[in-house]
Amino acid sequence: MNPNTQEPGPFSETYFHTPSPLAKKTFLYPVCLGHYYCDEEYCVARNNYDSFLMMLVVKGQGYAESLGEKAFRKKIGEKQLVLMDCYAPHMYGADSEMEFYWIHFDGINAGAYFRYLTEVYGTVLTLTDSQANVFLHKFRMLLEALSSDQGIAENLLGYFVTDLLTFPSGLTGARTVSGSEAAQEDRFTRELGKAVSYMRQHFMEEITIEDLAGCVSVSPYHFIRLFKKQYGITPHQYLLSMRLDCARFYLRSGDKTVKEIAFSCGFQSENNFCVAFKKQTGMTPTNYRHGMETRELF
Description:
Elements: E1 4-5, E2 13-16, H1 21-26, E3 28-38, E4 43-46, E5 52-59, E6 61-66, E7 72-77, E8 80-85, E9 90-94, E10 98-107, H2 110-121, E11 124-126, H3 129-147, H4 154-164, H5 179-202, H6 209-216, H7 220-231, H8 235-253, H9 258-264, H10 270-281, H11 285-293
Antiparallel strand pairs: 1-4, 2-3, 3-10, 4-9, 5-8, 5-10, 6-7, 6-9, 8-11
């Protein structure tokens, strides 16, 4: 694609941000953002513009195309949210008079954020009125922050970008299921937090998959499937990691014996604990503890 940009119409706004070296390696940050009014002549075609793009269409119709990892070519319209990988060739524009908000963002975890959002929700999301209003408010907050004479701290600006990329519950995105099935799955996703909370409060005790599935009121099989889809690991793996995190804290923060730590963190025996600990960390609990004690602190 050759660069080909038509200017937006009157009353459009554009703001640029130059992040500090600290912000580049610490936060998500805006590269530039704006609020545009345009007609059917408006078009942007680039080979690349090193960032990721989010657009919220307020009025009108247009199109978007990306040749990135999540390649797509789609018509876009009112109350739709668009996500594009602008590290790859891309193009977007208007088919009629169109109003939209947009932000090019980047940062230390921007690529991972983009991949997560497009994997779960897709590249073009159709919003309800209330969801569109949520995103509209977040875009306006960012525009106000960059247009203010008072300036804004980079950590707070990073918070605003992260908040913009934190999608509200109820979005069904790219899932190809019926409305009732999507609503039920969204409910289960929210309910999974109860199961994680149960683990956090009872990990030192014996926990069965039936206990966890009961927190969500589904069968154990369905619970395992939903949990792995949401967290990327099984409930057993999550619970084991939680117990080992606790064990690492005690190994480096007190004088409990390895056996005492094993049982206080929910393991059924010292041997089971030592095997699991070495498998995850590559060292025995005793060696892990001594690794801290042999360092000179001052």
